[in-house]
Design brief:
This protein is of the alpha/beta class and 344 residues long. Helices cover 44% and strands 15% of the residues. The N terminus is likely disordered.
């Protein structure tokens, strides 16, 4: 899993460097864009823009492979008790490129964890986080246009639900904007989850921020990073929850990053159906590279940006998703609590 995340991180850096080179060649539009982001970060968040009790946390693989203990479950439940976290996305994969999942090898302690969490935190749902790298950008990778692959993904989803999970959370990367295969697998798995009365959720790419910049990335690197707003809407219509991976943005300043999150929140709110939970990701980890400036991409800025983007929206099924448990520090948790939870 670590190697796969590093692989995705390298991809983001390559695309970001290429885009920065291009954008630096057009300083006037870039400057105007930076000003617009800074303006999105100005002002005070609405007092109503606070947790609705629909937040989430991504959890690493250690919870299902035997490395965690009953004491760890108790500590996790105690931490969550004073938050708005309702959903846990627990890494139960990765899926093989053909869509299969060797459960006994990958997640031998999954049933133990789902049972333990249901007792320790009965109000928290435990969803199985499944994913893989996908074609055409990554080859070898999963071919979501292949019906046989989609059938195996569906079967794998059913198998992890049999382990006691309360839902399915997909993270396929990099899904190209407009991918029909991705929509098809969501349609197919949603029939399964709906039949079992559990949610289907998805980790989503950011929305194309300006100038159809995703098309430029495709032209330069043959690999896109963003989805169009229309495609984001198509994905959102097929799930119960959509969590935007609103990090790795290449923003060099905290104010620009916060403004970027505010704008992403607004763009996502415009097209997310009322019935669907919309969550914005929080970067509870440290990296410092061209796609992720550690001093800029902070939990504080992400929380404030999401609140500014949410404004006075009446949408109740909105939340924040913390990425990820094994890198989140007490300072990250404090920033989430202080910025997003009501003051007593």
């Amino acid at each position: 899993m670590k190697r796969r995340w590093q692989h995705w991180s390298r991809r983001r850096r390559v695309i970001t460097v290429l885009l920065l080179v291009l954008l630096l060649a057009i300083p006037v539009p870039l400057g105007a864009y930076a000003v617009s982001l800074r303006l999105h970060y100005i002002g005070d968040p609405s007092p109503q823009a606070l947790t609705r009790g629909r937040d989430a946390l991504w959890l690493g693989h250690a919870w299902v492979d035997g490395r965690k203990t009953a004491a760890d479950v108790t500590a996790l439940a105690n931490r969550l008790a004073t938050t708005g976290v309702r959903d846990l996305y627990v890494h139960a994969g990765p899926l093989e490129h053909d869509g299969s999942l060797p459960l006994a090898k990958v997640s031998p302690k999954a049933r133990w964890f789902t049972d333990a969490m249901s007792k320790a935190a009965p109000g928290v749902r435990v969803q199985a986080w499944l994913g893989d790298i996908v074609q055409p950008a990554k080859n070898p990778g999963m071919d979501l246009d292949d019906q046989a692959v989609r059938d195996r993904v569906t079967a794998s989803s059913g198998a992890v639900l049999d382990q006691g999970f309360d839902g399915i959370h997909f993270d396929f990367e990099p899904v190209e904007s407009g991918s029909a295969g991705f929509l098809a697998v969501l349609d197919q798995v949603h029939q399964l989850t709906a039949g079992r009365n559990v949610p289907l959720s998805v980790a989503a790419a950011q929305i194309d921020p300006l100038w159809s910049v995703n098309s430029l990335a495709l032209a330069i690197a043959d690999e896109g990073k963003w989805w169009s707003q229309d495609y984001f809407a198509e994905v959102a219509r097929r799930v119960e929850q959509i969590a935007v991976m609103s990090y790795d943005t290449a923003m060099p300043l905290e104010s620009l990053y916060g403004g970027y999150v505010a704008k992403q929140t607004q763009l996502a709110l415009e097209v997310t159906p009322d019935r669907v939970d919309l969550l914005m990701g929080l970067p509870a980890y440290w990296e410092n590279n061209p796609s992720h400036w550690g001093k800029a991409e902070t939990v504080e800025a992400a929380v404030r940006g999401a609140r500014l983007g949410l404004g006075n929206s009446p949408k109740q099924n909105f939340g924040l998703a913390i990425y990820v448990d094994f890198t989140a520090t007490d300072a990250h948790w404090d920033a989430y609590r202080n910025g997003w939870l009501p003051r007593e």
